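Re: the request from the purification team.
They wanted to know what the chain is likely to look like in 3D before they choose a buffer screen. I agreed to run a prediction and write the result into the notebook, where they can find it.
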Amino acid sequence: MVLTIPDEADISVKPKMTWNLLKDNVPNLISHVIFPLLCLTQDDLELWEEDPVEYIHKKIDVYEEYLTPDIAASRFLMTLASKRQKSSFNGILQFINTTLSSYTPQVKELISSIGTMTPILNVKKPRYV
């Protein structure tokens, strides 16, 4: 099994001893490691433009999904938000809000619109079906 930096950090979130060493560095870890791993690269954009089907196959490859840094970064964020919610969830949201604020208002409004619908999307038996 190949471990990436986000995988190691993911493992470090759960135990109290390692969390105490990690927690002060979480904001920098998110902004300088995790977020860049989640962003599309120039290669991703080129592949999307040249061959959208291949791009989707690359991003949804079941066999390689656990080996990619972006999936490891996503897992780290989920673990952080769920296992250390009290001490890190608001910081994650603050980072997202600050990052979105640097983009055009339309992007922020679109994300806000999706967030507004979250209670509807999270119900077990959707009313919109």
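For the purification team: The chain is about 75% helix and 0% strand.
Please add any questions underneath this entry.
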